[in-house]
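Subject: for your reference before the review

Hello V.,

The reviewers asked for a structural picture of the protein, and I figured it would be easier to keep everything in one thread rather than splitting it across files. Below is the amino acid sequence we used in the manuscript, unchanged from the supplementary table.
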Amino acid sequence: GLAIGIAACILIMLFVSYEKSFDSQHKKNIYRLDEVQKFEGMVQPQNVALSMYPMGPTLLAEFPEVENFTRVRPANKMDLTYGDKRIFLPRVLYVDSTFLQLFDFKLVRGDRKILLEKPNSIALTKESAGKIFGKEDPIGKTVTKFVGDTISFTITGILEDSPENSHLQFDALASFNTIAGPRNMSNWGGNWLITYLELAKGTDIGALEKKFLAYLKKYMADGEGWRFYELFLQPLSKVHDHSTDITHDYLNYQKFDNSYTYIFSVIAIIILFIACINFMNLSTARSAERGREVGIRKTIGAGRFQLAGQFLGESVLLSLIALVIAIAIVKLSLPAVNDLSQRKLELPLFDLPLMLLLLGGAVITGIVAGLYPAGYLSSFRPIRVLKG
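And here is what came back from the structure prediction:
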């Protein structure tokens, strides 16, 4: 029973840990620029994960708090050909050349600073490159997009596959200036991309957001268009699990509601607590079988604290045995749990910090579950228990 309780707790906390780990690989102070749209005739304003093409450059120019920006436009499905080979890539993103300056996605080959500077540049992930080129060196080769507008791309880099715990998922990154340029700088009111900002550390986000009204008035001065918009900033760490009220959120892989992670955490603690209570009850119920043992030990000089320590030690040992069984249960259950949750949860047995955490948790569980039985058993009076 204790093993099953520990296993359930571990499985739930693996899920919670996975959800909380999203985008943690990026170290810069990144925020997503979102809009509140309040057009005439709308029942209520809507939050959207979209922004306008000119916003990135103008925000960089207007506000010293903004240190860099990048824009992202999903190309969605893309068919590419190389010679006689044809490959279908379901997730291609058009991004500014600054994309890899903000985000710390691992680059296998190429220069982060100039990788996507030139029009018609593309960087493939290792998986995508392997599908097209096999073991052939792809750098400098040309692939052609032939569905829709025919575009030829030169491969300028190779990236590691995007990690599962990233809200941005891609098979390739193409240079944004392939499809957009200075002519789009007057396109105020067109919401067709996503803007990410790198802000200076220590920036007062609330104070910065208050300046956005004057900014919109300045750049959308023609007509009253600025009245239909508000801008707000969302920390990168909260994009994945704090966006349930944000629509048109097209690039948010496995979007989740943060409140459920807290609910699951509470459920895990309750399950473990119930398992500890059951363990305590069974240990106490077995106390009748150990009454004479306690009496004899006390008769030959054992003190109460010595006996309590012995019983606590037994409880901790049983808890550690339960942990071993629980890990086996978790390993056997993970494929089914992953299939149900559509996640790729793992329990790395050779992760030293994780193993130390599990061992520490098992020891604490053993102490908590064994405190009452140890106190109860060590309190027996020798004369009474030896008389039966």
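For the response letter, the relevant points are probably these. The first strand starts at residue 30 and ends at 37. The chain is about 40% helix and 20% strand.

Happy to draft the paragraph if you're swamped.

O.
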